[in-house]
Amino acid sequence: MHAAASPRETRVDGWLIRLSPGKARRSRCVNALGSTGELPLDDLIVRCRRSFEQAGLPVLFRITPFSQPAALDDWLDARGWRAFDPTDVQVLPHLDHLVPTSSGATLQAMSADAYATLVGSQRGSSQEEILGHAERLKTAPVRHQAFCLQQPNGEPLAYGQIALDGTLAGLFDIVTVAAHRGQGWGRTLCTELLLEARRQGALEAYLQVAVDNAPAQALYAGLGFQRAYRYHYRSDDPRTWPEGV
């Protein structure tokens, strides 16, 4: 939660609401993590919806095993809020088994603005989404460090970032350049990022990966990551629903 903090946050009766535009849904959703007060759920939803409308965003809930109240997921489901994008939070309990790769590629540090622009171009992000991404990186309470994995001649291969919080390192926004996908550069990038995190004092790592992203799931399993828990999103706004939901 700290590493994914948004500069546009508010609280509604114990719930944390993030209202930052961008591709990352975790930065524009309701995180129902705190105990609520006396307001009925219907009233809470109305207040949340008002905040999202003012921000020009559709209402979106992120449902985790820690959401409060415990019956929130069932309550939303019974009222037609559709569930989508199940995502695994995975952990790597130690980093001492990692060894440098022999690929010849190296990490090049990047500014938040340059990183958001280049990653956004690979994802097809809008200018508003790119600006929102850069803003989150620069204002997060946990320091984000962005890198490009590149060939000795400077050709970019992949992009990624680490967020260091004490001895805990998070991997975020792992993107391989389209022309180099399927060649193992994602694994090389993640290995080098984790080694960099270890050099800076990290002892363990975490990441988030979509359940249906089979290549990424295989990559992270190969590095030793294990699932800690799974979350998903819910919305009653058809604009947010992926195709087929």
UniProtKB/TrEMBL annotation:
Residues 105-245 form the N-acetyltransferase domain. It holds the Pfam family Acetyltransf_1. The keyword ATP-binding does not apply. PROSITE patterns: GNAT. Keywords: Acyltransferase, Transferase. The keyword Transferase applies. This is Ribosomal protein S18 acetylase RimI-like enzyme. It comes from Roseateles terrae.
